[in-house]
Structure formats: C-alpha cells, structure tokens
Amino acid sequence: MKPELPPNVVCLPRTNQLEALLTIIRDKDTNRGDFIFYSNRIIRLLVEEGLNHLPVVEKTVTTPTNTEFEGVSFKGKICGVSIMRAGESMEQGLRDCCRSVRIGKILIQRDEETALPKLYYSKLPPDIDDRYVLLLDPMLATGGSAIKAIEVLLAHEVKEDKILFLNLVASPEGIEAVTKKYSQLKIVTASIDKGLNDKKYIIPGLGDFGDRYFTLP
Ligand code: PRP
Ligand code: URA
C-alpha cells in the first residue's frame, strides 16, 4: 500500500491519458520534438489543476437573457515564477491559461558533482507579496532547488500559503524535504516516482529535463 501523501500535496489522477503522456516523456528514445510536445500537454494539465486550488469569491452577473447568475471569480492576483532553466518550459502553459500573467524568474543550478543548489539571480514582480505565486519547476529531486526558490519568495514577503508549486515528476525524498520545512504551501505534481539514484537523479524519472527540452537533438 502506498504511504499517504501529506495534505498539502496533490498528485494528478492517474488517468490512462496521463500515464500515456508520462510514458512518452520517460522513454529515452523519445526525440526532442515529441518530448517538448508531450511535456507541454502534461504542463497544461498541471496548470489547470493548479488553478483549481486558487480561492474564489462570489460574483453575480447578468446573462443575455436578463437573468442574474450567482457565480464566482478568482480572489486576488497571481503570478508565475520559474526556476531557470527547466522551469521556463512551463511558462507558456501558464500563459495559455492566464492571459498576460506576470512572470518572475529565479536562476538556481544544481552543482553537477554535489547536487547542491546555487542561487545566481532572481527578478520578481515588485508587488509579488500581494499575489498568489505559481512556482514552476518540472523536477523535484532532493528538493534543494525548490527550497532555495521558496526561501527567495518568502524573503520577498510572499505568504507561504499563497505558493503553489507545479511539478511534473517528484521523488518521495524531495516531497518530504519540502513539506517538512513548509506545511502551508501546496505542491501539485503529475507523478511521484520511486526515489533517487546515487547521482541524485529521479528514478525511474526521465533524465535531465532541461537538456531534453532545450538542447538535446
Ligand atoms: C534541475 C531541475 C530542478 C532541480 C531539481 O535543474 O529543473 O531545478 O534540478 O533537483 P533538486 O530537487 O535536487 O534540487 P538543474 O539545476 O539541473 O538545471 P536546469 O534547469 O538548467 O536543467
Ligand atoms: N534534474 C533533472 O532534470 N532530473 C532529475 O532527475 C534530477 C534533477
């Protein structure tokens, strides 16, 4: 039996469609064109699910039949923040759902030898403390990069419970590291894999997401 997820972690339902999309991007023989296309399909599902977790307020509108409809509208402003480089692949999926959404960037790179994250740069919307933040990174391995990015957001006075971390593939170790430190933010992921190998890569995983999306043939 699978251990229960912490309450602030949401894994997309394991539909046939999602399983098929994940199988394509996990396959080492999938070329870059297909990797981009099918990753984008999963990113779209993640963004749609992430938006389901944003709060709404009541809103009444009048329809063309001159009838009042008691509906809702999103409460508050949002922005996206991508962890460069791989997180940038998720920006278009967010833009496709949220027209002219503001996007901030945090450049964090894992050291290839130690797998420890290093923060190089951040540029965030000036009013980010007043927004819900959709934090974008496809891979959650040790959790080091995500934790560093969350520290940057909190230092900019983003409220922890206004952070939604959208992620394609997570390891149990990464989920534990992030949720042990932060219990109020939410993680939305498409898959929680078995674990990490000795190079701190996710297994079965899909390899280096950034290389496969941006540079490999
Ligand atoms: C990858 C990935 C995450 C990080 C995950 O980025 O996109 O940011 O590793 O690993 P962690 O949970 O152990 O920190 P990487 O630093 O390789 O850079 P890239 O985005 O340029 O591929
Ligand atoms: N970064 C990746 O792109 N893949 C992993 O499995 C771990 C870190």
Automatic annotation (TrEMBL):
Question: Which portions of this protein are annotated as coiled-coil regions?
Answer: none
User: One Pfam family for this entry, by name?
Assistant: UPRTase
Cofactor field? Mg(2+)
Q: Which UniProt keywords apply?
A: Allosteric enzyme, Glycosyltransferase, GTP-binding, Nucleotide-binding, Transferase
Q: What is its EC number?
A: 2.4.2.9
UniProt-recorded Gene Ontology molecular function terms: GTP binding; uracil phosphoribosyltransferase activity
What's an example GO BP annotation here? pyrimidine-containing compound salvage
Query: Ranges for the Phosphoribosyltransferase domain?
Result: 14-214
InterPro entries cross-referenced by the UniProt entry:
PRTase-like (IPR029057), PRTase_dom (IPR000836)
- Which pathway, metabolic or otherwise, does it act in? Pyrimidine metabolism; UMP biosynthesis via salvage pathway; UMP from uracil: step 1/1
Instruction: Note the superkingdom of the native organism.
Output: Eukaryota
Protein family = Belongs to the UPRTase family.
Which protein, by its recorded name, is this?
uracil phosphoribosyltransferase
